């Protein structure tokens, strides 16, 4: 079966990650991506995971403890737009993932926003190593979602071909606005 946007995001990450990479989960939520990344870069790598909600950190920490993955993970209660303050100058980052929108079964008004998503993405790209990848899963069915998708379409299309490969992965015959995946790979 063709992989969903979420499944394919992990496949594209798994292809490039090794056991000492530094990576970023820009939207921790329930910790699915954080756990995946922590597994992929153990034992020598490091995951920086961001969220603005306490409940995301609590849930994610619990899952990491259960799986013995706390060591290589830094959980950060802050907006991903402040990523720059948490990385050292010129710190090489191999990959990052954004799962945009709101946390399921939580406050639907607390959503990721175009300006702050763009700011985080710019910082991430400035640290991305050659062959590194950034994955963005865009949900756009909620209020404010289409504005963020528009920003991503524009931003991704304008990245120079000499420096980046950019992929857009989308099911075009599905109902209910399924998520769209973007992959930015540094050449
Ligand atoms: C779709 S959920 C993420 C799902 C998550 N990746 C998972 O595996 O469960 C989006 C998350 O982004 C968080 N968020 C919203 N604005 C943010 C920001 N500026 N910085 C970091 N996280 C943010 C929300 O609190 C929410 O938990």
Overview of this structure, please?
This protein is of the alpha/beta class. It has a single domain (5-186), classed as 3-Layer(aba) Sandwich (Rossmann fold). 32% of the residues lie in helices and 25% in strands. It has 5 helices and 7 strands; from the N terminus they run αβαβαββαβαββ. It has a 7-stranded mixed beta sheet, sandwiched between helices. The longest helix is centred in the middle third of the chain and has 14 residues, at 114-127. The chain is globular. The two termini are 29 Å apart. S-adenosylmethionine binds next to helix 2 and strand 2.
The bound ligands are:
S-adenosylmethionine
Shape: globular
- N- and C-termini, Cα separation: 29 Å
Specify the CATH homologous superfamily.
Answer: Vaccinia Virus protein VP39
The gyration radius over C-alpha positions equals 15 Å
CATH architecture: 3-Layer(aba) Sandwich
Report the uncertain regions: none
Number of domains: 1
Strands, total number: 7
- Mean pLDDT over all positions: 97
At the first level of CATH, what is the class? Alpha Beta
Number of helices: 5
Which fold name is given in CATH as the topology? Rossmann fold
Task: Give the topology string: H per helix, E per strand.
Answer: HEHEHEEHEHEE
Roughly what fraction of the amino acids lie in strands? Answer: 15-25%
Biggest sheet character: 7 strands, mixed
User: What is the SS-derived class?
Assistant: alpha/beta
Task: Walk across the major sheet and give the strand order.
Answer: 3-2-1-4-5-7-6
> Residue share in helices?
25-40%
